[in-house]
Amino acid sequence: MASIDKGLMTGFNSTHHLSSNGQGSDLQTIKEEQLQYITFTIGREEYGVDIMVVREIKAWSETTHLPNTPEFMRGVLNLRGLIVPIFDLRCRFSMGLTEATKMHVVIIVQVGKRLVGILVDTVSDIISVGKSAIQEIPRMDRNIDDEYLSGLVTIEERMVALLDVELLFNEKAIETGVAFGETAVALK
Amino acid sequence: MPQDFDLDQFKTTYFEECQELLDSAEEHLGELQSNFADVDVEVLHAIFRCVHSIKGGAGAFNFTELVNFSHVFETLLDRLRDGHISLNQDMTETLLQATDVLSNLVQCAKDQKAVDLNDWQDIIKKLEAFTNAQDEVSNETLLDIETIEQPKEVYNKTAEEEEEQGWGLFIDDVNEEPLSTIEDVICDETRPCYKILFVPEIHLLRFANEPLLLVRELKSLGDCIVQVGTDRMPSLKEMKSDEAYLSWTFILHTDRSLQDIEEVFEFVVDDCELAITQIIDDAEVHPEKNIKKKKTAKKEKTAKKEKTSKAVKIQDTTKDDVASITAEPKPTTPDQVTHSKKPDKENTDQAASAGTLTKVSSIRVDLDRVDKLVNMVGELVITQAMLKQQSEDLANDAGHIMAQGFEDLSGYTRELQESVMAIRMQPVKSVFARMPRLVRELSSKLNKKIDLITAGEMTEVDKTVIEQLMDPLTHMIRNSVDHGIETEEERFQSGKPERAQIHLNAEHRSGRIQIEIIDDGKGIDRERVLQKAIEKGIIPEKHDLLDEEIDNLIFAPGFSTADIVTDVSGRGVGMDVVKRNILNLGGRISVFSKPGHGTRFLMSLPLTLAVLDGMIIQCGVEKYIIPLTSVMETINPIKEELNTMVNGSVVVSVRGEYIRLVHLHRLFNVKGAVDNPSNGLVVITETERYGLVGILVDELLGQQQVVIKSLEENYDPISGISAATILGNGKVGLILDVDGLAEMEHGGDRNRLGNLKQQVLMTGEQAHGIDR
Amino acid sequence: MGLRVLAVDDSKTMRDMVGFTLRNAGHDVLEAGDGQDALEKLGDDCVDLIITDVNMPRMDGIQLIKELRANVTHKTTPILVLTTESDSSKKNEGRAAGATGWIVKPFSPEKLLQVVAKVCP
Fold first, then answer.
1. Which residues, at least 6 apart from A100, have a Cβ–Cβ distance to it below 8 Å?
2. Which of the two residues, B387 and C1, has the higher pLDDT score?
3. What is the C-alpha separation between B313 and B332, in angstroms, rounded?
4. CATH number for the domain harbouring residue C26
5. What are phi and psi of B181, to 5 degrees?
6. What are the residue boundaries of the structural domains of chain B, listed by start?
7. Are strands C79-84 and C101-105 parallel, antiparallel or unpaired?
8. Less packed terminus of chain C by CB within 10 Å, N or C?
9. Helix B344-358 and helix B41-60: axis angle, to 10°?
10. Is B523 left (phi over 0), alpha (psi -120 to 50) or beta?
11. What is the spatial order of strands in the sheet that B512-519 belongs to?
12. C26 at the B interface (CB within 8 A)?
């Protein structure tokens, strides 16, 4: 288990600074609010999540499956005594079930009062972006539900989709995950 | 400089403390009640302190009504403990009622509800009446006790009112121009000028009142010029280090008020000569006039013999040259009636002996910390069990040698666990203690005379269980009082004693705690119960229920025989909710009734909610844990014992009884599980609504004690799962909710189980957010 | 600058409030639940200031003050007694026993610090 550590990511420069005009003028970078994201990959897609909500990053380990839960709900993990649910993001985005191995990564995030884990392929980097560098989501043919994205940003010509965990795991969504379990058997 | 002092942070502590104090007061009053002819004055002191402390805190938070009421209450208690008046039955009753009112007021303060003391005027009047009664010791009528309206103002003014004259001053600036005499001072400043003469009593230093501090304080008010008087200085030989010989005269220029100057000397005013005069015309400085001795008649003079002879009178205001402005002495309150107050020493001795009864050393610990400790020890137990297992797997010498070590470790760990669990164990007393008051209030509302007799209140149970006990107990007692106990008239008719009795007992039995509530009322009206049950469709008209089964119908959902929803119980919150709550705790409840004689509720609960003994079972690729308390037996059914019913459910015959099977693997969609009961095992468990059910499992893996962990902390409830735990291998284990499973199984009756799979797939899709 | 203060009161709420106020102001606070406890906790050490309630079990405030003054270690330590306005006789008793000053309950934190500054260098 690794906690957030800027030195953790090897092979990449630690931060990328962007400003609205992309010219990296110092004045603008200083004035503008910089937001930091941890980026990760699922297949060939790259995503980012607000560093402020990330609590921990660890390698995948076998979860205990919870009965009657959606497929993307991989089960629960023991996180130093705390029971944390793990969601398969690939599956969540309808891209199939992840064949998780020890090489896969689980990012533990804080959503409201809860801790939730998301299963991803790899974690890449920590990026720092100016608020104005974040673009709105265009209507594109993507497999992700737009509702969960807070924006898009371009890093070195790659596109990173910024996830809003609050939206992804809003109370309703988690509840729905369970309610379905209940519906499955309420049958009245 | 003004810091933001938020007193709100102390409210929690305060309310906790209030609860303890109220409980303590009630307990003491109970003692008094049973023995008021021979009252232990220490008990009175203790009760006084309880109310006094509540008042103190209430004042800090400005809970005005609470302050006012406690004040009246406290005043009576004060007179009682001083021996001015003595206790009698009526008074004790009133004191008890006053405690109830106090409790209500505290609760209102806690809930931030508005309160009108007029609601309790009758109690207040009673308290005042007792307080103002003839003083038995000296036959004098007592000082007028402040009525309820007064204290409000007093509280607002008090701190300021307390300001009396003080003293202070000093030369600290050496560079100041020395003056030949104080009379040479010319007050040409625009600021008012005061002359302050300060002559401390010789013993002043024994009060640790440091003159230097007073001087500095005076100096902080303005500009000061000082002259020191050394006429009292003895020779070096005779000088004592703790005696004050110096005196001072100051000329102070200040814009501050006379009151501010007096405030400097507020603590020492009784132990010095002090004169503060305002100098209006510099030509009219008369240093020697108006020397006063400030004294109040309040003071008890035992130690200060020399003072008693001196004049008490102040102030000669006819001098017109000098406008003497000195504070009026506070209006003296009449001397306290000298009564035979026990000398302090005796009090302490008594206190010491009484004290040995109650003082048990203890510390307060945050419940969170205890919970953490419990968890850690739980992990420890698991880890050591794991290691032990691994060492046993090493079938070699090293393994054997370690085995002994692990045996020892195992023993210690178990002991540690027991000790830690014991930390959270508390006597049920804290819950029982609330019941007498409840009974008092209810019985007075309903005009019934009821005595509550408790036993076994020191029986211990985990704190988590105690918290959960409150509601069910309250409900059952309400039920007894409201429905069980007859009216005085009815009791008279049936020749029963006037005062009804409710017994509340607790004891440990077979590793659980058993609580009984027995009343000598009229018992359960079986006819009415049957009627209602048939009406509500709970049982068919043609039934063959035993008496005991009829009685237990009161626990059926939605059941309530009250035609009128009384204020006391009813409201549709019936015994079914009570039963549900008890079951959720892993407990059991039943009722026994004898018409005309009374009703007995019997409740059994596990000693702790944090840990449970579980049976680990294998179901396909998954393992689950069944709480051992629910398990009745395990059987290996043969084909002949199994029958499939019309609705698709399967039952197994056990000693002539048919028990419904719960297909765990189907309900949970587990792969690879045994589907044919005769190839697996059936764990027969007891549920609430569905009686006995048999859970089909692959095999039994073992038994172990597990630490219960919440699933709901980070996720939501799952049907059929009650909680989680951490297994020896570090993985999460799921604890089954047998009642939930039974419900799921029965729910499947209405639809073919095949639909189950479909639904799960559907939900899977929906969950992907494809709501288009 | 921080003083060593002993706060004696059988009410935890009171102790908490007094302790908090004083600690916030940079002082070190020792707490005791009654007079007996206070003496035990003090032992032979001296403190810079003692603040005590009057009504306490085992040993009340007045007795405590007497005991303290009889002990050469605490003879000259400033002692403040907490009283309620309706209990002025206690104030005098406190003084007679040797108290340096008093504070009337309920008091504001500001007042507490003010009086502490008054009696302590």
1. A60, A74, A88, A119
2. B387
3. 12
4. 3.40.50.2300
5. -135, 165
6. 7-142, 182-331, 368-426, 428-606, 611-758
7. parallel
8. N
9. 90
10. left
11. B450-455, B500-509, B512-519, B598-606, B588-594
12. no
**What dotted CATH number matches B611-758?**
2.40.50.180
Query: Is A168's Cβ below 8 Å from some Cβ in B?
Result: no
Domain, as residue range, for A58: 6-181
Write down the residue that tokens 């020896």 correspond to.
Answer: B728
Superfamily grouping for domain B428-606: Histidine kinase-like ATPase, C-terminal domain (3.30.565.10)
Closest CA to B632 of B588, B582, B595, B667: B588
Choose from A58, A68, A111 for mutation: most chain B CBs within 10 A. A68
Instruction: Report chain B's C-alpha Rg in angstroms.
Output: 39
Q: What pLDDT score does B296 carry?
A: 35
CA distance C107 to B459: 42
Strands across the sheet containing A82-88: A54-59, A105-111, A114-120, A82-88, A73-79
pLDDT of residue B558: 66
Residue A11 falls inside a structural domain: yes
- According to DSSP, the β-strands at B631-635 and B193-200 are unpaired
**Percentage, residues of chain B above pLDDT 90:** 13
Q: What is the Cα–Cα distance from B675 to B663, expressed in whole angstroms?
A: 8
Residue B313 CB partners (closer than 8 Å, separation 6+) = none
Residue B571 pLDDT grade (very low, low, confident, very high; cuts 50, 70, 90): very low
Q: Tell me which residue of B324, B199, B169 sits closest to B258, measured CA to CA.
A: B324
- Who wins on pLDDT, B299 or B224? B224
The mean per-residue pLDDT over the stretch B332-358 comes to 37
Query: Cα–Cα distance between A78 and A73 in angstroms, integer?
Result: 15
Q: Which fold has domain B7-142?
A: Four Helix Bundle (Hemerythrin (Met), subunit A) (1.20.120)
Instruction: Establish if A187 belongs to a structural domain.
Output: no
Query: How close A134 comes to chain B (CA, Å)?
Result: 25
**pLDDT beyond 90 at B367:** no
Domain of A149, CATH number, reads 2.40.50.180
Average pLDDT over residues B299-328: 34
Q: Decide: pTM greater than 0.80.
A: no
Fold agreement (B182-331, B611-758): no
Q: Distance, in angstroms, between C6 CA and closest chain B CA?
A: 15
Q: C75 CA to chain B: closest CA distance, Å?
A: 7
pLDDT > 90? residue B397: no
- Spell out the residues 6+ positions from residue B320 whose beta carbon is closer than 8 angstroms to its own: none
Contacts of B496 (CB under 8 A, 6+ apart): B486, B520
Chain A residues lying within 8 Å of B755, measured CB to CB: 187
pLDDT at B318: 35
Tell me the residue type at C101: G
- How many domains does chain A divide into? 1
Which two tokens mark A95?
């891209």
ipTM: 0.87
Question: Whole domain around residue C104: which residue ranges?
Answer: 4-119
pLDDT band of residue B333 (cuts 50, 70, 90) is very low
- DSSP single-letter state for residue B566: -
Does residue A153 sit within a domain?
yes
**Cα radius of gyration rounded to whole Å, chain C:** 13
For every residue of B151-213, DSSP letters joined together read HHHHHHHHHHHT-----------TTSPP-S-GGG----SSS-EEEEEEEE-GGGGGGT--HHH
User: Which of A78, A93, A94, A118 to probe by mutation at the B interface, max B CB count within 10 Å?
Assistant: A78
At B692, is the secondary structure helix, strand, or coil? strand
Determine the 3-state secondary structure of B696 from DSSP: strand
Task: Tell me how many domains chain C contains.
Answer: 1
Q: Quick check: helix, strand or coil at residue A179? A: helix
Q: If you classify domain B182-331 with CATH, what class do you get?
A: alpha beta
